[in-house]
Amino acid sequence: MSLQDFINDAISPWMNNEGNDSDIVLSTRIRLARNLEQVPFPTSQDQESQQKVLQHVEQEFNEQSYESFKQFQLVKIGELEPIEKRVLVEKHLISPNLAENTETGAVLISENEQASIMVNEEDHLRIQLYYPGFELSEALQQAQKLDDWFEERTRYAFDEHKGYLTSCPTNVGTGLRASIMMHLPALTITNQMNQIVPEINKLGLVVRGIYGEGSEALGQLYQISNQMTLGKSEEDIVEDLKSVVKQVIESERKAREWIMQQSGIQLEDRIFRSYGVLAHSRIIESKEAAKCLSDVRLGIDIGLIKNVSKNILNELMVLTQPGFLQHYAKKSLHPNERDWFRANLIRERLQLEQYKN
């Protein structure tokens, strides 16, 4: 696998599969924060130590294969063009924070893009594992196995009483951050998310936008994840999150039924207007595109739109982001140019979908 293989396709191979409750849950992510023993954490800004970590990862894991993830490829942030970095952020293979570390930052990406291990982000290693749909237990089991594979060749910073030691106190303990990406259009349209988010926060969980902390919920996409990792086992953290997500799924389904019963024709009008905007616009901004894509995905899920793939939201939400647009255009684009290119790309993608059906 090469860097271009990771960049060229908006949809990672694992995203083509369908998991549980995939009409509402787009993906499951398990992230494990780990640091090497007796090495200053990246937040100390010790470049020499970070370089040693990078060399260790490159020597031990670059081009090594592990089970179904196949071969891992090391990509160094400092060797990437700005657009390439932005594409990897848009695909959730790296974080915006790691994209800024051009000196010692890197990422190990598995051939199927289901696993990515960020090197010298906030911690020495951040092991990320993705699954389609609502698959928390399976994702945790596989992440633990992948973690064991790393630990065979790496000595972690670990305390018998505190657990895994991390740069941020909120990650000390298990170092686990479990996240669920959910499409919640009905709860958003009915303004119930304004009530649900504070209640979720009271339970020690956090709700963020599509690109994590500080990002907004474009296209009615929300991430729900645990906030604290100390004092609970990995299994307990996952079970707590699973319980809350099940309630949110049930609430979203009830909200969809209520809207169909109370405002069916208005909902149909909204969905098909959004489809019309996507199918015919010559200029479209990213926020409007995200809103329309969300409406169309809802239309697909409730059976109003039958000739468009369910993966259209996943694909076009990534494909129409600034990095991907400029990658496909093979040049930097001004905002107005991006709006034109985005509209053109969406029209062509929808036309291809109709041709396939």
UniProtKB/TrEMBL annotation:
The keyword Cytoplasm does not apply. Keywords: Allosteric enzyme, ATP-binding, Kinase, Nucleotide-binding, Transferase. A motif (RDXXRA motif of the pArg binding pocket involved in allosteric regulation) lies at residues 338-343. GO terms for biological process: phosphocreatine biosynthetic process. One of its GO terms (cellular component) is extracellular space. Residues 24-255 form the Phosphagen kinase C-terminal domain. It catalyses: L-arginyl-[protein] + ATP = N(omega)-phospho-L-arginyl-[protein] + ADP + H(+). The keyword Magnesium does not apply. SUPFAM superfamilies: Glutamine synthetase/guanido kinase. InterPro entries: Arg_Kinase, ATP-guanido_PTrfase, ATP-guanido_PTrfase_AS, ATP-guanido_PTrfase_cat, Gln_synth/guanido_kin_cat_dom. GO terms for molecular function: ATP binding; creatine kinase activity; protein arginine kinase activity. Its EC number is 2.7.14.1. Appears to be allosterically activated by the binding of pArg-containing polypeptides to the pArg-binding pocket localized in the C-terminal domain of McsB. It comes from the Bacteria. ATP binds at residues 27-31, 92, 126, 177-181, 208-213. NCBIfam families: PRK01059.1-4, PRK01059.1-5. Catalyzes the specific phosphorylation of arginine residues in a large number of proteins. Is part of the bacterial stress response system. Protein arginine phosphorylation has a physiologically important role and is involved in the regulation of many critical cellular processes, such as protein homeostasis, motility, competence, and stringent and stress responses, by regulating gene expression and protein activity. Belongs to the ATP:guanido phosphotransferase family. This is Protein-arginine kinase. It comes from Alkalibacillus haloalkaliphilus. The lineage of its organism: Bacteria, Bacillati, Bacillota, Bacilli, Bacillales.
